[in-house]
Request: fold
Amino acid sequence: MDYQGIIAKYKDVPGGIIEAYHAVQKELSYLPEEVIVEAAKIFNMPVAEAYGVATFYSYLSVEPRGKNIIRICESAPCHIAGAAEVIAALERELGIIMGETTSDGKFTLEYTECVGQCQSTPVITINGKPYAGVSPAQIAAILAEYR
Amino acid sequence: MAEELRIVLRNYGKIDPLNIDSYIALGGYKALEKARGMDQKGLIEEIKQSGLRGRGGAGFNCGQKWQFAYMAPAEQKYVVCNADEGEPGTYKDRLIMQNDPQSLIEGMAICGYAIGANQGYIYCRGEYPYVVEVLNQAIAQAKDKGVLGDFDIEVRMGAGAYVCGEETALIESIEGKRGEPRFKPPFPPAQGLWQKPTIVNNVETFANIPVIVDKGAEWFAAIGAPAYPGTKVFTLTGDINNKTFFEVPTNTTIREIIYKLGGGIPGDRKFKAVQIGGTSGAFIPEAQLDTPVAFDAMAAIGATLGSGAVFVLDDSRDIVDVVTRIAGFFEHESCGKCAPCREGTMRTAALMEKIEAGEGANDDIALLEKLGRVMSYSCLCGLGQAAPTPVLSTIKHFKADYNAKLL
Reply:
């Protein structure tokens, strides 16, 4: 992947490193070391600082992740609406536990805090797309869209 | 009372958010035109006189803030919209941005004219990539129409950090850094984004601006509670029949929101507690439900209006379980810059987990109270200062829930 080309597009954007990271992650799902080194060069900062930015934000990852990132909200409104049962269903369906990636590299399970779709709880997102008011019974059908 | 009054959501469902013409057809951008016909001081005075206070949680007089930035001498100034809506149970800013993005853009442009800024930023949370798309389209349409004049707006997307809702952390993040709050003063209206005078206002605050300019300060000041006039958008979650949103005048009471608009508690359950303002808000017992939601009335009972989240728990809920989860939230979201918050949120979460596991004693409750007090006055920013509130307010009002789990 031409990560140099993607990062270079943000060269003249003041403070654009986070936007550049988002753009790379859209293609790669995570930020490999070479991306961080390149971003440090382009945005003229020490590599440690570029790494510091990459590791500060929950939605940026320096560890490899699956193609589809499933996030489960664990904030209080989703917590009392049965998020734990949805988590159990996802873990069972994918054969992995929270924080892991399936061996085929297709899915990663992550916790998230509130994603602002609280009109119907619990909520999960897949690649940022929200699914509100999900029940364990719906999980297989939702995942089928991404298999 | 207890009637909906839509001011910030005035165009909800009435316009096509992706078509600026439908906004203009309902009078959109007339306020900006009117504002640009006023002198800057007069415009700021009008906003001040309206009594509009920030809808992000701090409740500072909006016009007063603008005046600080107007008076700060600088070649370059900035207008920043805080769209990092991160308080759990809150989605009011998303509603505004998805359904009426031009109201926000017009409000920001009016602010830009008032303080002398030609560049704006909307910092939208990373959880809302689909809102970023709506905003970018809306901005492009506004530029094409020429309604913004020389005012430009850029959207920046956050990346999942609750602390970036704190205005100086948000500014750091726009600058491409770790979102850690700055020491204050200097405050952003004096030295903000790239050290230039900067106004940071919430989405809901900006959405009020065009209406105030259009209808006048007197009209706005007469709505709701005199010390915190206007309306507030509330989002209802938890054990409530109508899990939806309402916009009401600020003199509406908590009871009216829960029972009249919210339709009460589902099934034959009884009310136990409500947490208002988001996850950093206080838990409020039955006895205080007749409190008006206005900023100062809430402060008087040790609670906050905050973001307008209304999280209701019925009598089947275990307060200690819920607060343990909330303590975990703050441990995760603490940025780590200051020790009282970094260590305090971690110790609070550990103590809550201990009590939740049935291994706590009275000494642990005393420790939580002491730690909470220290954090509330020694943490660097609002996150750490407010983090103990759910713990302290539930120990105060729902001690029986804790006692039931102690050794």
